[in-house]
Amino acid sequence: MNEQEILEKLAETFRDIFDIPDLVLNPAMTAEDVPEWDSVNHITLIVATEQQFGIKFQTAEIEELKNVGELVHLVKEKTDNN
Amino acid sequence: MSAPELSWLPSRPDWSDALRSIGNTPGPKEWSALVSLANVRLDFVSTLRLDRRLVKLFGDAPPTGLATRSLRLAVLGSSTVDHLFSAIRVGALRRGLWTSLYKTDYGQYSQELFDKNSELRRWKPETVLFSLDARHLLGGFGVNEPADEVNARLDRQIEILVNCWRVAREQLGCRVIQQTALPIFPALLGNNEHRLAGSPARLVGQLNSRLREHADAEGVDILAVDDKVAADGLNAWHDPMLWHRAKQEIHPAASPVYGDLVGRILAAQQGLSSKCIVLDLDNTLWGGVIGDDGLNGIILGQGSSLGEAFVMFQKYVKDLSTRGVILAVCSKNDEANALEPFEKHPEMVLRRSDIACFSASWQDKASAIRDIAKQLNIGIDSLVFVDDNPFERNIVRRELPMVAVPEMPQDPSLYPATISAAGYFESVGLTSEDLARTQQYQANSLREALKVSASDVDGYLKSLGMEMRWSRFQQIDSQRIVQLINKTNQFNLTTRRYSEEEVSAVIAAPGILSLQIRLVDQFGDNGIIALVIGRVVDDTTAIEIDTWLMSCRVLGRQVEQATLNLVVEEAKRLGADRLIGRYRPTAKNRMVENHYPNLGFSPCTVSDGDGQCWELTLAERAPSSTFIKIIEA
């Protein structure tokens, strides 16, 4: 899966969790940009992403994420290693 | 790590569309649409989405005229429990229950419980759920404390909890549910952990078994998350990272199953647990088809792993009946065939006397199940229907959405675990009345006469998108053809048997009508399910149908009519203007005695005495309209 495909799959999850059907996800996006992206939804997002791609994030990896692009990159790294 | 699943519920590809199509006015129609969407194998994100819709429509009040009692449930948690609320509401919704939830402030559960002016008390809960995390329950223990001190501390801890239960029951007037402690602690010694009295890993087990003893004495129901962890593995239920990050002890991905556990206790407290399990026979209680394979041919008992698996399932069902679940049978079979194993098979665990209502006939299962409920005089919503055949499961789900129909795994070895995981028969107390129930219902059922009622299945058949893929006999399929010809006893008009050579001869002869028919639908390929062989009668323009047989698996799906359409076309191609059909009765093929008249054949003008003879003039027949698309393979 390339990063674009991952971004698209993630976008579905973001839309479902934030309940914003027309949300467009871009790599530069951060929690600041989406009012619904609070700390509770953040956990939900991380867990949903783990389930969706069959991967597991490390505590430190999650702490370091700056934006959507970095999440996509991390997913790519993990799915490549699977 | 895979999340615990609602594995007994069916998945539904159009779920998102169906969710979107629910209207915005909170009425009974919207409610039942939500209930039906809850009865699907939801993961935690779909559970959140469904709950959002539920809260939007029915957040403040249940729909008017709801038959079940609405509930006010307070969750008393010692750490984060918010992430479980959607799943709890959906778990209740799945059973048609409307719930209003309350959570105590973080770390404040005991204050709110004891303070007479607390918000909790003003909210007036009807049920409280103590959802206390293991660290909270066992945090005060020292690993190196001597055993007697540890045990004294455990006693105190239990006393504190029991006191909480009593306050909730006596002062708040609530029913109480106590969640067991999650076994999250890693062992310090290992196999012999019990030698270290203060080890948290050991204490969880001790605490849980003490909780159970006291719960029974206090009239408190247990929410056994520890048993689920034993079945699914700790990693499926708990992620230490999420604990550190958000104080979520239960993994959000496990929340759908958690919510279902809560939902089934709430339903059981209202007496809404299922009461009766309705069992299919062929490939559900034994392997094979009794009508075709015969008493000695069905797979049941020692000597084959499959046969042992069916015995174990029967044993599980028998044990269910011992604890008060009513057993019924619903099978498409001749009654004499269906009863034979119960009366004569030495490996049968279940006996006729275990079955309170025995329905074996050729009517559709939805109607048969209605009759069973009527005869037993219990609500149709208290039935669980178990059938290996996805077609039957789906037709019952569609016709009788109030009947619980578990998805069954391919392998019968997994049947008991599947029924158990679904928790249909959740009990909040076992009475001697439970234990006597089967006999009682059996007596009732004998009094009621069987009534046949039709159920409209057209819409369902249409939705199946059935395709009949036919060809003339193919050499490559000859083994399957021979097997079908020699094995099929019930839907077989003439019961003529063919050897492989004889089938090859049919293939080689250009003037012989031969059809092999495969049925494909949205559940997949049913394989070759029907065969027809026809031969021109010497010196005439008539074709006599020498062999017409079909697998009983596809009964009631218009395959007969569609097949006749094909036969007529083929007969015309071969230059015939008339079809002759013959029914030769045997001990097993009574179900097709009216096959030809049902299809519009008339009695032959001259009969030769070989069974019953029927004929059809091709020019007079218009093709039957069916929901099956016919495709030449």
Care to describe what's here?
The complex is a heterodimer of chains A (82) and B (633). Chain A is mainly α and 82 residues long. Helices cover 62% and strands 0% of the residues of chain A. Chain B has 25 helices and 17 strands. Chain B has 3 domains: 199 residues, SGNH hydrolase (Rossmann fold, 3-Layer(aba) Sandwich), CATH 3.40.50; 181 residues, 3-Layer(aba) Sandwich (Rossmann fold), CATH 3.40.50.1000; 168 residues, Aminopeptidase (3-Layer(aba) Sandwich). In chain B, β11 and β12 form a beta hairpin. At the A-B interface, α1 and α2 of A face α3 and α12 of B.
Q: What is the alpha-carbon Rg of chain A in Å?
A: 12 Å
Radius of gyration of chain B over all CA atoms, rounded: 30 Å
Architecture of chain A in CATH?
A: Orthogonal Bundle
Shape of chain A: globular
Give the helices and strands, then pairings.
The complex is a heterodimer of chains A (82) and B (633).
Chain A: H1 3-18, H2 39-53, H3 59-64, H4 68-81
Chain B: H1 15-20, H2 28-38, H3 44-58, E1 71-77, H4 85-93, E2 99-103, H5 109-114, H6 119-123, E3 127-131, H7 134-138, H8 147-171, E4 175-179, H9 200-218, E5 221-223, H10 225-232, H11 234-237, H12 240-246, H13 255-269, E6 276-279, H14 290-293, H15 305-322, E7 326-332, H16 335-344, E8 357-361, H17 365-376, E9 383-386, H18 390-399, H19 415-422, H20 432-447, H21 458-463, E10 467-471, H22 478-487, H23 500-508, E11 513-521, E12 524-536, E13 542-550, H24 559-573, E14 578-583, H25 595-598, E15 602-603, E16 612-617, E17 629-632
Parallel strand pairs in B: 1-2, 1-3, 3-4, 4-5, 6-7, 6-9, 7-8, 10-17, 13-14
Antiparallel strand pairs in B: 10-11, 11-12, 12-13, 14-16, 15-16
Helix pairs in contact in B: 2-3, 3-4, 4-13, 8-9, 17-20
